[in-house]
Structures are given as C-alpha cells and as structure tokens.
Sequence to fold (137 residues):
Amino acid sequence: MSGVPGLADLKLYHVLGQPNLNFVIDRRMAARFGINVPTYRTRFRQPWVATPSARCYSPRNDTTSSVRYQAPYRDTPKAIANIRLLSRPASGSLWQQLTTMEVKDGAYDIYREGNTRYDAVTFNVRGRDLAARLKTP
Fold:
C-alpha cells in the first residue's frame, strides 16, 4: 500500500479481547467420577443455556419448558466452581474437581466475509481528495 498517494496512519486493526472463563476438563478425574466428556459438556452448558426439559402438546399450541440455574449459582467463577454434578458416587462431584478454570483474553469480534475470516486494516488519506482517481500506469 506504500504506492497509494497521501496514505497515512496505516495500521492493522487489533481485535481487543475480553476476558473468557475457560474450563479444561481433567479426563482422569471425570472418569473417576463416572462422567464421560460428552456427558460433561452437556451438563456444563445447562447452568447458562436454557436447556429444554419437557414438551407439552395440546390441540392449540405446543409448549416447551426450559431449565437454567438461577443467577447467584452461575454469575461468578467461585459459584461455578461449586456447582455439584450428579455422578455415580452418591456424593457427586464439583466443577472444580473435574476442571481447571482459567481466565484468558479472547477475541471480542471476529470478522468474517463469505465464510472466511479476515483482519481489518485502517488508514487515513492526507493531501488529496478521496474521490480523485488514481492514474494507472
């Protein structure tokens, strides 16, 4: 882009991150409690995503009931760590026993066009009209 007349302030648009709470499953501990990874992932979604739990059919309309944890049990990392999973042992297990929680910066926006990811470039033009046509050699 160095050949564009009047180009100034050229930079790559940095995607600023936001904190993400990541959970890494300890497969060995999950197996000890009789929980396989697909089951864990299904149960893991339930506190945050309203999970359909029942469907009621009637002549006029169908209704689906959903279940989600109340806010105090899912709003902080400490509350999440203390969520108890039902498992084969009668005592159950806590999230913190099965996962390692870590807060990492993740992408705030991911730009896509035509199902392809791209990085945005920003620039200014100085000393010339933006509508002026460039002469092609």
